[in-house]
Amino acid sequence: MARAPLLQLSDIALTFGGDPVFSDLDLVVQPGDRVALVGRNGSGKSTLMKVMAGLVEPDSGARVVTPGTGVGYMEQDPGMEGFATLGDYAASALDEGEAYRVEMVAEGLKFDPSRAVSVASGGERRRAALAKLLAEAPGLMLLDEPTNHLDIQAIQWLEDELSSTRAAFVLISHDRAFLNALTRATLWIDRGQVRRQEKGFDAFEAWRDAVWEEEDMQRHKLNRKIKAEARWAVEGISARRKRNQGRVRALGELRKQRSDQIRRQGTAAMALESGPTSGKRVMEARGISKTYGDKVILEPFDLRVQRGDRIAFVGPNGVGKTTLLKMLTGEVAPDSGTVQMGTNLELAVFDQNRAQLEPDKSLWENLTGDPAIGVSGKADQVMVRGAPRHVVGYLKDFLFSEAQARAPVRSLSGGEKARLLLARIMARESNVLVLDEPTNDLDVETLDLLQDLLGDYDGTVLLVSHDRDFLDRVADTTIAMEGDGRATVYAGGWSDYRSQRTARAAEAAPVAKKSANNAPAPKTAPSEGLSFTERHRLEELPAEIARLEAEIAKLEELLMDAELFTREPVKFKKATEALVTRQTRLGAAEEEWLALEEKAAT
């Protein structure tokens, strides 16, 4: 017997500012769905998710949620008025005594529930909103860019959580590896239409290209038919006094059909040009170190950056990646050691906080007011790699409309702000690009173009990112900072770093630590017989097992209260179910580890 859908949207229409966002939209989310929601920046992904969550009322149509289904939405900019701490906010919808759920999630997402809301950063607020959703565990989760502001370790933890959940979820993300690992279906918003394919994100690009190819073929056939009918209409005048009026009307219908077709949004016409060639040695650090209070950010470290290098900095949030980057570029002085800059350097910087953009000024003002590209005495022109351009024309290269040019920056989406900042730095001639989290919020097509541009760029690239796929495609050297003050240099991108790190650990053959129950904890074995995915899984399983053991210990401690069943039966039931679930997952993880260990040893 077919199960009822969790959520159904029927004949939805929505208009913003006179422009239709959706019309005649139908959508169904079934139990167990794991759906990627994709589309260009500005196509309406977040708006559609808010309609699904019931936070935006459509102009017409119906939203139906099956009785008993909880729908949870991860807010991008959550309102936390009235809450003293992030933990208070995250636990606000839970029954009394269920705060342990927030603590478990907070450990995985690496945020402090006791952090005061008044001093929390935007990233900490986003993690609290994600923790709130995961702790509440609704039947349908709507996640809008959940990996933004998470480091790679937290992203992998979230990936494991979503992999094991029984809840359905709809997911917006720019992280290809995350989407590939989790999704089984894809919703594609394209020019106000929503298409669905029962395949995960890894099949999206082939599907998209096939749809566009079919569109181009139909458009070509229509143009040929219009051309033939128009020739008949003109040539027939001299041969007949009365034309076939039905055929003339049909020609008018064909022309109307062509004018009604919605053209696809083109790819941003981004371009990168390196300025004067820098010296062969771009920068050289000798013995640089940094300490803030009692925290050691960097022990003495040496690095030589050569012209054309693509160097990625990876590690947990707060470990000091941006600080090291700023020491290398001279923005922050090291406590010891020296950094010698090369000759003829032209730096262009993309900062993760978008601090270079003035939110209350328009896009126009943000470009023309930049002294590096604004043309003196010309309020409507910018210098783009040495040549003057009208500001509107240049903004159109980055997919902004003329109307948007006069709008304030604060009205833009996250992806649009990233594109505007790229427009600023790409207008300059440079030979060193410093990119601190450039991938946040960018759509897939723009990410693809950025990767291609960086591949063809003649200069040097210094990159901080938590996007594993992007790191693999761009970096030729990875510097790993893992929180102990050491920065270790590895050849290649993210996958190369993980493989080399595993090999080094195997060669070192460390003594296995004892787990909480005095059983030997899993350790990584040589993995020549494993695929890359299996090697990666083998490396991650020990941390997953340790986390499950810690969660089980907390639940067992809670259930030791002999009065809990009679005092709070609902809480007792939920805690018991959670304990059984985690014990099952622990057993499965241990069996998986043993199987991979045996395979690696063969």
Keywords:
602 residues, 6-stranded mixed β-sheet, globular, 20 strands, Rossmann fold, 42% helix, alpha/beta, Helix Hairpins
Describe the fold and architecture.
This protein is an alpha/beta fold. Among the domains are: 219-260, no CATH class; 281-499, P-loop containing nucleotide triphosphate hydrolases (Rossmann fold); 509-601, Helix Hairpins. It contains 19 helices and 20 strands. The chain has helices at residues 45-53, 86-90, 100-109, 122-136, 152-164, 176-182, 204-239, 245-260, 321-328, 363-368, 391-397, 402-405, 414-427, 444-456, 468-474, 494-508, 532-559, 564-567, 569-601; strands at residues 7-16, 19-29, 34-38, 60-65, 71-74, 140-144, 168-172, 185-190, 193-197, 281-292, 295-306, 310-314, 336-341, 347-350, 381-384, 387-390, 432-436, 460-464, 477-481, 487-491. A 6-stranded mixed beta sheet has the order 5-6-7-3-8-9, with helices on both faces. Strands 14-17-18-12-19-20 form a 6-stranded mixed beta sheet, sandwiched between helices. A 3-stranded antiparallel beta sheet has the order 2-1-4, with no helix packed on it. Strand 19 (477-481) and strand 20 (487-491) form a beta hairpin. Helix 7 (204-239) packs antiparallel against helix 8, helix 16 packs across helix 17 (532-559) and helix 17 (532-559) runs antiparallel to helix 19 (569-601). The longest helix is centred in the middle third of the chain and has 36 residues, at 204-239. The protein is globular and about 80 Å long.
